[in-house]
Amino acid sequence: MSTPNALDEQNLIEALKRGDQSAFEQAVSEHTAGMMSVARFYVDPSSAEEVVQDCWVTVIEAIQRFEGRSSLKTWLHRIVANRCKNRLRTSNREINTDFSEALEPELDNRFKPSGRWATPPRLRFDESADALMENGALSDCLDKHLGQLPETQRSALILYEAHQHKSEDVCNILDVSASNLRVMLHRARQKIFLMVETFQETGEC
Amino acid sequence: MLMCRDLAGIASDYIDGELGFGKSLSIKVHLMMCKDCRSFIGNLRMSARLMQGHSSARVDGDVIDRIQDRVTAALEERKPPNNPGQ
Ligand SMILES: [Zn+2]
Questions:
Q1: Which of A17, A32, A134, A151 keeps 20 to 30 A from B55, CA to CA?
Q2: How distant is the Cα of B27 from the closest Cα of chain A, in angstroms?
Q3: Nearest Cβ partner of A103 from B3, B9, B56?
């Protein structure tokens, strides 16, 4: 989402440190969506907005101490995660990351007892994801299905795939183990796989 | 012997290069012989890539606007009072 006048990261950080208002406008519009994904992993959607708002206000001061050891995005995501964790410490909420099975039930049903495919994948998806995404209906369908994923899987998927965080950063931000992250990612991808397959076959979401 | 179902269980780890040499090799061997699993891995990889390009983390413009307003207000508050220029 870069506009022609957008500052690159280094200049953006310098401008944020000066308290430059248009720099904050740029940073808020570029980074809020990702920060909301982090917050929604931990707290309900309405609290998530409150947390992210509060984080931005603290960033005005905290940016002075930002030394650039991580990207601005990772730093912002950690701020949100820490704030959420502090908030949860009092509420004692358990985050459900316990998936003992690697396979989605709907996919698991497609194997014979011998372990071979009973109902193999019926089509090869297009070679290019870009071409697939140019199909607006598929993109809408993807949105819908993402909306139905458990918050934990959705956040893991968004941070890892869409934001391209490294595994260790995702684990750190979401406070999950590496093996938990692997299972969350795999379960989420299988759901996307099943969705695209249905969409390609029936044209329906 | 690695079966199709076993492969499906660790397919994401394979795609992301998170498997050790031995397991990764047994998947490669299986894929040479099994067209169905080749389709599955290809499609799962494409599913992951779909997410990479998808701006799924979109939020309401309203949310952004409210944050912009609050940040602007906080920045104003912070300005030293003796700032007669502008
Ligand atoms: Zn197979």
A1: A17
A2: 14
A3: B9
Pick the CATH number of A9-90 from 1.20.1250.20, 3.60.10.10, 1.10.287.1490, 1.10.1740.10: 1.10.1740.10
What confidence tens digit (pLDDT) does each residue in A116-138 have?
999 999 877 765 667 777 778 88
- The full DSSP string for A44-106 is -HHHHHHHHHHHHHHHHHHGGG--SSS-HHHHHHHHHHHHHHHHHHHHTPPP------SS-HH
Residue type, A53: Q
- What architecture is domain A105-202? Orthogonal Bundle (1.10)
- A166 CA distance to ligand 1 middle (Å): 29
Residue A60 near chain B (CB below 8 Å): yes
Judged by a CB distance cut-off of 8 A, whether residue A200 touches chain B is no
ipTM given for this complex: 0.79
Residue ranges of the domains in chain A? 9-90, 105-202
